[in-house]
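Holo prediction — zinc ion.
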Amino acid sequence: MKVIIDRQCLLHDTIELLGSRVGNALESPARLETIINALPSDDKPPHYVKKFIQEEDRDNEPDTAAEILSSTHDEGLLAHLATIHATWVQHGLIEEHESVLPECFPLPWSSSGDKSNVPPKDQFARAGFYAFDLSSGLMKHSWTSIRASAMLANRAAEEVSGPKRSADSIQDRESLALCRPPGHHCTTKKVGGYCYVNNAVVAVETIRRRHSSAKIAILDLDFHHGNGTQDYYYEDPGVLYVSIHGKDEYPYYSGFEDETGKGAGVGFNVNLPLETRATFEQYLEKVDVLVKRTQEFAPDYIVVSLGFDTFRNDPLGSFQIDTGDYETMARKIRGADGLQSIPTVILLVSNPVVILAWTTIGC
Ligand SMILES: [Zn+2]
């Protein structure tokens, strides 16, 4: 497995409104820093190799991540993410060390007609147009981290699908991108749930650029439903989306079992909500369903949105999953008939130190 890391992903450090409290976002740089510090210092090729992105990597390689972002995400959203913090500082709305948070969202009722689809002229109001909640503040360095995170997703997908790949090489079959900020909640038009651009979309479309007819399964293993990823592929029969997540939890308005896809995509969206406080045994029952559906789909590639807020002590989730259980889970999925050798990209969506359990199964 190749583990790809970019220290630029640590720069994003913002605030959120949680309940009645505005404070530091729970999705913090410390989570990723913990992983980076805990990674074994010695590589063990071919099973485990680290790659830190350097300045020369950014300069020397074609920026296909930017092209894929432009072709999949709303142009206005990308411009907003790149400029809104500086604009607010310039207008005296915030100090440079402070963050942008939305105030007002588009009106959902029909009497506002198309006006809900037009960005407001007021820069102060615009933050709400490109967001659906108050957990995705933007600070001075957010855009740098957002771009770096998307680039990691792009590179990880290239590692397993690009021209340099050797089908026989273990490390060319699996890549892990330590993405931060995460991506599975945001749509390609609005930020939310600590997510700004959808890294799973970037990874899938990176693979499809080279292999246009590839069948790709997205396995979403975070405590929360990946509403943004589901949304993007909801009518697409070429992408199977399967998610195990907390029932009636954030993002509250999606993740239900009866969301099975639309049009040609019917049957290719599988939501497996699980009661909060569920035990690992209960979780594994859902994993069995996920494995079966994935085997039936017979993907050419797998993209995993891997969130460790399923961990029992994580403040963002409430499943009863322990450190050692992650290896069991990984072996159950990766070891299933027909899934062992499928090229796989793993993207972080929430990340304490138990990530290491996954690096042990690169075989
Ligand atoms: Zn989550």
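READOUT: The chain is about 35% helix and 15% strand.
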